[in-house]
Amino acid sequence: MSSSTIQVKASTSPVGQVSTSGLVWQMARRDILTLFRTPWIIISRSMAFIIQLFVFAYFISGLVNYPGFFEYYAVGSVVAMVASISFIIGYDIFEEAEEGLLDYLLTLPVSRRQFIIGRALGGAVRSMIYIIPMFIIVALLEKFVNPVSIIAAVLDLFLLAFGVTGLSITMAVTVRSANRFDVTLALLDLAVTRVSTALYPLTKLPLYVRPIAPYSPVTFASTTVYDALVLTSLNAADLAGLIAFVAVFIVLGATIYFRRLEGGVYA
Amino acid sequence: MISFEKAGKRFGTLDAVKDFTLEIRDQEILGLLGPNGAGKTTLMLMMGTVYRPTSGAISVNGLDVVKHPNDVRKLIGIAFQDPRVDGILGAFDVLNWHLKMTTTLGKEERAERVEQVLRAVDLWDARKKRTWLMSGGMRKKVEDCKVLAQRPSIAVFDEPTAFLDVPSRLLMWKMIRELRDQGSTVIVATNMMDEAERLSERVAIVNRGKLVAIDSPEKLKSTTKGGEVLELTVGVGQQFPRELLAEFSEVQDVTQTENKVSVYLTSGRLLLPKIVETLTNRGVKIDSVHLKEVTLEDVFLNYTGQSLD
């Protein structure tokens, strides 16, 4: 035990000078940094992706009668992966609430609005970092070199990630039981990702899925990303659907989040 | 100044805090003393804008916590009872991030301040160790260090020395006093009598969400009935005949918890043989007798009718 003492002069001025964007970024950065402290997750996910692409996708391409299916599947795999990974932020927030860490975060000088935007942003950026290696593999494999197409595709992926983190946060603050939350999020992940045209074209999906699949946010994203990369065109309708999804779940997530907090609607 | 004005917080049908009125002066160390579940943490979280009061009003330096939550958050630093730290991060990163969020310090200043507090609590060598791998005491120190490094206008410590060994407790008290000396208002929630007594200038006794007494530890003790306590242990299951002691004008009050009887009185030394004789003559079996001065625990017992554990 050190016997030395510290000079603990209290701050004379509050921290009002810290910019809003700075605080939002710090909230987001916290989630992003967590990822880099467990790099093995990125490595293992990338390995799993490579196996899925070069083994599973290779074999299934021979079974699915659809022109350019491998390319379709490769692009869709990246989109589906973004959606799945973006759900993780919900687990993080649920765990923080259970462990009490959320109470601490809520005492920090960040408005609730900044807080949720920061968390959603952090979750989305984290998802993008996850899939960068996979995106590069697919781009190299399929020779996607048009920079405008690549930027458009990345933006589409980011929108999907942002929306899914909002959806995930909404679930985290809506479902109170841990077991129910795990099951709910797993089912939601499955529904959003699998009931979509990300991995298989609509005509190849089971009949009972076909009426719903076009409205999945993952379908919106996979269509816009595919059109941007492969057809080098903009799919305005699906992009609008994707933006609507983001708007609804970020706003909905924030609203429910505010209400769920014991503090009520603090600004 | 912090002001609670008939503040209340209701969770469902439970009033965790009810009609709580208290003023906390600038640059004082106020001890919030109460048993587990008394409402101490709820009070602090209402003040810290995590919980919204369901009735009454709370203001911090003139700012209403409901109307100006963000401004209030900028003034307060809370060290929680159970450490609230990212387990995956080391102590340095936990404190550095906390300062990023709560101060305008630059990178070098932050690093310097974090080093200062971590060295002071002997955690510098373990600064990179992930906090989930740390012992309970080390994690608790990290939690306290968040506020010590932040140096907020209002510093709140919830059970600041839980899990700490004796030297660490003494050091933590010293650092908390220094924080106050440099300008912070300090609130220490505790259920440890010695901590409340040795650290606080005033002690607020909270029970079942209500403020039952507030004053300096000395005054609380001196105003407590009698000034001395005669502690008797009587036979198990034996009903104590309180009316027998009514004849002694020096006896102020009598409380009984199971077979432990506390008699609050003056002139205890003179009265002790008489009381024992009177009780024995009436067939009361006395296993032990102990005369002592009033402690804060007696004050608590006196105000709440229950012991502090």
- What is the name of the CATH class of the largest domain in chain B? Alpha Beta
Number of domains of chain A: 1
Fraction of residues in H or I helices of chain B: 25-40%
Mean pLDDT of chain A: 83
Q: Note the gap between the termini of chain A.
A: 43 Å
Molecular shape of chain B? elongated
Beta-strand content of chain B? 25-35%
Can you offer a commentary on this structure?
The complex is a heterodimer of chains A (267) and B (309). Chain A is an all-alpha fold and 267 residues long. Chain A has one domain. In chain A, 72% of the residues lie in helices and 0% in strands. Chain A contains ten helices and no strands. The model of chain A is unreliable at 1-16 (pLDDT under 50). Chain B is of the alpha/beta class. Chain B folds into two domains: 2-220, Rossmann fold (3-Layer(aba) Sandwich); 225-293, 2-Layer Sandwich (Alpha-Beta Plaits). Chain B has helices at 40-47, 69-73, 91-102, 107-120, 136-150, 166-181, 193-199, 217-222, 268-281, 296-304; strands at residues 2-11, 14-24, 29-33, 55-60, 63-64, 76-79, 154-158, 185-190, 202-207, 210-215, 228-234, 251-257, 260-265, 286-293. In chain B, the strands form three sheets. In chain B, strands 6-7-8-3-9-10 form a six-stranded mixed sheet, with helices on both faces. In chain B, strands 2-1-4-5 form a four-stranded antiparallel sheet. Chain B has a four-stranded antiparallel sheet with strand order 12-13-11-14, covered by helices on one side. In chain B, helix 6 links the parallel strand 7 and strand 8. In chain B, helix 3 packs across helix 4, helix 3 packs parallel to helix 5 and helix 4 packs across helix 5 (136-150). Chain B starts with a strand and ends in a 5-residue tail after the last helix. The mean pLDDT of chain B is 89. The interface between A and B is large, with 40 and 52 residues.
Task: Sum this structure up briefly.
Chain A is mainly alpha-helical and 267 residues long. Chain A contains 10 helices and no strands. Chain A has helices spanning 20-36, 39-63, 69-86, 88-99, 101-107, 112-142, 147-174, 178-194, 217-229, 236-260.
